[in-house]
Amino acid sequence: MTKRRRSILICLLAAAILAIVASSHWHQELKLYTVTILPSLGGDVTFAEAINDLGQIVGTSSVAGGAHHPFRWDRDHGMRDLGPIGWPADINNEGRICGTARDPNGRECAFIVDPDGIKWLLDSRSTATAINNHGLVIGESCTGQISRTSTGLSHAFIWDEMHGMRSLCPPGADCSYAQGINERGQVLVFRPPRRFLLWDPNEGLLPVCSVIPGNFYGSGKINGIGRIALASRYSRGKSRLMISDDAAGWRTVLTLRGDIGVACVNDANQVVFSVDSGPPAIPLLDRLFRRRLPSTCLWDPHLGVISLDRYIPQGSPMQLVVHGLNNHGCIVGTLYSLNSKRRYGVLLEPIPERWGGKN
In the sheet that 117-120 helps form, which strands lie side by side, from edge to edge? Predict the structure, then answer.
């Protein structure tokens, strides 16, 4: 074979390899979302915390004087200042908001906002982290008021109008954290250092991780149909992203280097997560690695891993932190400027025709 033919063959082989790689990663190159930067209430900082299925977003934003106020945003009404009531954490499809604020006595307490105004859930230090469409609120209390002990550590709770505050702390536990609630009223509870439990309204606390290998940490979420997404760390600095499956038990959907932090999972079993690969050992290799493995991602059952970092606006270097994901695949989070103290709320909305019209 002549030198010229050998060169042509090498070029053709390289082109074929590039075509295969490009076709296998088409969803990484084709833009799947539109990006909306949320306005502020007059200041330089906006944090977007949660989004419901109607596209209503809640968070906090600074006003002209520098104070932070909670807001509600949607396309029809724009940005609405809710007044100095605290820090919202979640919003349900009824428009009820839960969060944490300072009560009239100056203590940080869990609250909800409904058509009747603000309602304090506990007259002691507590935080609310999520609310479902039936008005059930979960969070943690930092006193012994609702717990089986009086250690002063965080204890998971669930609240509703009929029963008030109920403890979800496992027997004998020093502390526990409520990580998510679904429409069935099931609550995912984390008991440090490595145990997850599922609280069911009819069956109480049930173990959910006793058969999964690995070193667990507090990173898990539950969706509306009872699927649980968890992260597990195992040998050589690698982590698994796993989803529960009624038929197959636990399913590992992804294995990555570094620690995985699960932000949320929706009813389509899409999971938004972050990856912390640690400090770079070799800067050049780290830069190349991070191009293949973005720090903020969405895992989709049909498309696999989708980089969300590529939707960061060009210009000033920024980091994206995702907080919310609704059942239509809309994502909300915060863009952190790495060169200033500015923070921007951001909304990523799926482009339906690029998802096969599913969203």
Answer: 87-91, 97-102, 108-114, 117-120
Cβ atoms within 10 Å, residue 262: 23
Residue 292 sits at φ, ψ, to 5 deg, of -85, -25
What share of the chain has pLDDT > 70, as a percent? 79
Rg, the chain, Cα only: 22
User: What pLDDT score does 209 carry?
Assistant: 57
Please name which of 215, 234, 308, 202 lies closest in space to residue 264, comparing C-alpha atoms. Answer: 308
Question: What is the distance between the terminal CA atoms of the chain, rounded to a whole angstrom?
Answer: 54
Contacts 24+ apart (CB under 8 A), 240-245: 240/214, 241/271, 241/273, 241/299, 242/212, 243/269, 243/271, 244/208
Q: Quick one: pLDDT at residue 14?
A: 56
Asked whether the beta carbons of 179 and 222 are under 8 A apart, the reply is yes
Average pLDDT taken over every residue of the chain: 83
pLDDT digits (tens, 9 = 90+) for 108-136: 899 998 877 888 886 568 899 999 999 99
Q: Can you read off the two tokens belonging to residue 70?
A: 């909670």
- Identify whether the C-beta of residue 59 lies closer than 8 Å to the C-beta of residue 45: no
In this prediction the pTM is: 0.84
Structure tokens at 93: 């499809």
Contact 153, 142 (CB under 8 A): yes
pLDDT value for 193: 73
Q: Counting Cβ atoms within 10 Å, is residue 191 exposed (0-12), middle (13-18) or buried (19+)?
A: buried
DSSP 104: T
246/299 Cα distance (integer angstroms): 19
Give ∠ CA 171-215-296 in degrees, rounded to 5. 110
Q: Give SS3 for 22.
A: helix
